[in-house]
Design brief:
This protein has 112 residues and is mainly β. 0% of the residues lie in helices and 48% in strands. It contains no helices and 11 strands. The chain has strands at 2-6, 10-11, 17-18, 20-24, 33-38, 44-50, 56-58, 66-71, 76-81, 90-96, 107-111. The chain has a 6-stranded mixed β-sheet with strand order 2-11-10-5-6-7, with no helix packed on it. Strands 1, 3, 4, 8 and 9 form a 5-stranded antiparallel β-sheet that branches. The relative contact order is 0.33.
Length: 112
């Protein structure tokens, strides 16, 4: 199982960013997937979850600003993040919903 996140960057408040997760080594379409973020010294927060069929849910802190999609044919998942705030600064990870057993390297998003 491999999960590779990309797309993180330094953006100004109010800006937008699209992250990407490339999955391999498993049947991607069979699993719900989540995006989580980690701020050093703070808790891990799930920001979005998308089912294998495309149903989605968002954390309260990003609802209305983040949207997530997945392409089961390409084994990819992408959140679009709008109206970014400094508090969105974190390392973002995509995770397979099986107890979060597999982690990629994450991608750093800095809003400043």
């Amino acid at each position: 199982v491999q999960l590779v996140e990309s797309g993180g960057a330094l953006v100004q408040p109010g800006g937008s960013l699209r992250l990407s997760c490339a999955a391999s080594g498993f049947s991607f379409s069979d699993y719900p997937m989540s995006w989580v973020r980690l701020v050093p010294g703070k808790i891990l927060e799930r920001v979005s979850m998308i089912s294998s069929s495309g149903d989605f849910a968002y954390g309260a802190s990003v609802k209305g600003r983040f949207t997530v999609s997945r392409d089961n044919a390409k084994n990819t998942m992408s959140p679009r993040m709008n109206s970014l705030k400094p508090e969105d600064t974190a390392v973002y990870y995509c995770l397979r919903e099986d107890g979060w057993a597999f982690w990629g390297q994450g991608t750093q998003v800095t809003v400043s």
